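From the pipeline queue, job 12 of 40. The input is one protein chain; the requested action is below.

Action: predict structure.
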Amino acid sequence: MATFLYKLGRLAFRRRHFAALIWVALLTLAGVGAASAPAAGNTSFSIPGTEAQKAFDLLEQRFPGMSADGATARVVFRAPKGEKMTDAVNKATVEKTVKELGSGSEVVSVADPYTGHAVSENGTIAYASVKYEVSGMELEDSSKDALKDAAQDARDAGLTVEIGGDALTATPETGSSEIIGIAVAAVVLVITFGSLLAAGFPLLTAIIGVGIGVSAITALAGALDLGSTTSTLASMIGLAVGIDYALFIVSRYRAELAEGREREDAAGRAVGTAGSAVVFAGLTVVIALVGLSVVNIPMLTKMGIAAAGTVAIAVLIALTMIPALLGYAGRRIKPAGQKSRLLGGGRTPKKPGRPNMGTRWAGFVVRRPVAVLLLGVLGLGAAAIPAASLELGLPDDGSQPASTTQRRAYDLLSEGFGPGFNGPLMIVVDAKDSADPKAAFAEVGDEIKGLKDVVTVTPATPNKAGDTATITVVPDSKPSSTTTEDLVHAIRDKGADIARETGSQVLVTGSTAMNIDVSQKLNDALLPYLALVVGLAFLLLIVVFRSILVPLKAALGFLLSVMAALGAVVAVFQWGWLSGLMNVEETGPVMSMMPIFMVGVVFGLAMDYEVFLVTRMREAHVHGEKPSQAVVTGFKHGARVVTAAAVIMMAVFSGFIGSSESMVKMIGFGLAIAVFFDAFLVRMAIVPAVLALLGKRAWWLPKWLDRALPNVDVEGEGLRAHADPEEEKELVRA
C-alpha cells in the first residue's frame, strides 16, 4: 500500500499539470451536468415493510384518483376579536378564498369549512383542506404562490390566516453560520501551518471535492429521487473530511521536508505514509455510511451512499491533487517548524528545543494513566446520562419555529379542535375477502370509538368497488406523544381481532402512524447495523494496526463518545438546555434516525483520529521504540495536527446548526459535539492512557493471524527500499 501510494504521490508531483487538469475537468463536467439536469422529481418518504406504507400502497391501488402521497395544505382562518367565522362577512371571505384555492391547475380538491364541519365549537376558527395531485417537493412555484396569495387576500379582508401542511415544503437554508465554519477552519489551518499558501491547499481541495460531489448529486437527483437533505449531508461530511485528509498529507509533507528530503520524494513519502492512513480512515467512513442501507429506508440509504461517494472523492483528491499543488508551490511551502515571512517567519524561537504541547501532554498521561483514564470515562459517562431519557420521533409542523406560518397554523388548529387534530390517523379497511364489507366497515368504526384517547371517528368512506374504505380518527393527544403511539398500537391490536372475525384487514397509516413505524424500524435496525459496521471496521483496523486490543479499545472508546454525544443532543433538543444559544425554539422528541445516523457517521469519523494518531505510535514502535515512548512520539508528531483537524471538523459541523431545517440543525450539533468528545477525551486522553497501561500487550497479535493477514504497510516500512542515500543527505534549501 505505502509503496504504491509513494509512487502515486511522486507521479502527481511530477505530472502536476495533468493531475490538476483531471480534477478541474471533473468539476466542470459535474457542474454542467447539475446546471442542465431537470428539476428533482418526487422525493416521497417511503418505508418498505411497514404497515403504514402498506396502507399507502393499497390506497394507490383501490383509490387511484386519491393521490395519497400528494401534498396537502390546511388554510386556517381565525375571526377578529368579538366575531365568529359564521358571520356573513367572514363566511363570504372564506367562500371566496375556497373558490380561489380550487382554481389551481395542480389542485385535486378543496374542502369548504362550512360543508365539511370544519368550524370550531366556539365558532372562532375554521379551516379549508387543499389536496394536490403531486408531492410538496414536486409542487410548482406557481401553485405555492397561488396558495400564499389566496391567504393574503383573506388577511386583507380582516381575518387571521395561516397555512399548514407540506404544500409549502422548502429547501432548507443553512444560513451564514456555514460560512463562519469555513472561516474558522481557515484560521486554524493558518495557525497550524504558519503559511497562508499551505493553509489554502486543504480548503481548495475540499471545496473542489464537495463541488464535484454535490454537483453530481444535483445532476442525478431527478433520476435517483434524491432530496435536498442528501446534498446538505454530503457537503457537511465531504467538507469536513476533505479538509482533514488534505491537512494530514500537507503536514506530513512539511515534516519530511524538515528531515531534509528532496521535495518530490517528500511528497511521495507523505502520500505513502499519511496517505495510507487517509485511505483506511476513508474506508471506515465509507463502510459506516454505506452500511446505512441495512436499515432498508430508501431515503437514508441514498443519503449514506451519496455522502460516501463524496468521502471517496475527498480521499482521491487528497492523494493526487495535494501533491500536484505542492509541486506548484515549490519552495513557498516551508518545512515543519518554519513560518512564512508574512506570519513571522525567520524569527529565532524563544525556547529552542522545548518539547511541544503534544509531547508534554503525552508524557503526563503516560505518568498518570489510571487517573486520566478514570476522569475521561467518568466525564463521558456523566455526559451520557441524558441519553437514558431519549424519546424518538419525526419533526412535524409543531417543531417548526414560532415565526413560521406552519407553526402558527398548527397552534390555531390545536386551540380550535384539540392537539390531536394535527395528526389524524387514517384507517384503511380492506374488506375484499369479507362476506359483508359494509358490516366490516361499521364494526371497525364502532371498535375504534370505544378506545381511549379517541375524540372523533368519521364514517367509513368506501371506494367505487365497495371493497375498501377509509376512516379518519382524531386522537386526543398531539401527534408526537406516547399516548398517540399507544392508540396506534391499540387500533392495530383491535384490527387483528376484527380480521379473524370478519375476514377484513385493518391498516393504520397517515403521517403520525408513519412516524411511529419509522421510529420502530430504526430501533430494530440499530443493533444489527452497529454489529455490521463495528465488525467490518474492527477487521479493517486489525489489518492496519496488526493488533487485537488496539481495535477493541478503539471500538469501546467510540461507544463512549457516541453515547455522550446522544446525551448532549437529548439535553439540548429534548430538555431545552442551552436551547436559546442553539436557536432551538421548540423542544421535543429527538429525530428518529438520529441514533443510527450518529452511530454510522461518528464511528467513521472517530476511526479517522484513531488511525491518524495511533499509526504514528505504531510507526515509532515498529522502528524500535518502547511502547510508552512510542505513545509520546505519536503525540509529538500527530497531536497538533489531530487537534487542528478536530477543531476544523467541529467548526464545519457547527456551521450547520444555523440551518432552518430542524433535522440538519440537530445533525450538525450532534456531529460537532461527538467530534469534541471523541477527539479530545477519547483519542487524546483515554487512548494514550490505555496504551500506556497495556504496554507491549497492546500490539499483541496471534502468530497464525499475523501470517494470514495481508501486510498493508501503513507505517511505510517498505519505503526504505526507495531511499536514495544521496537524497537522504541533501538538505532542502529554505
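Job complete. The two ends are 31 Å apart (CA to CA).
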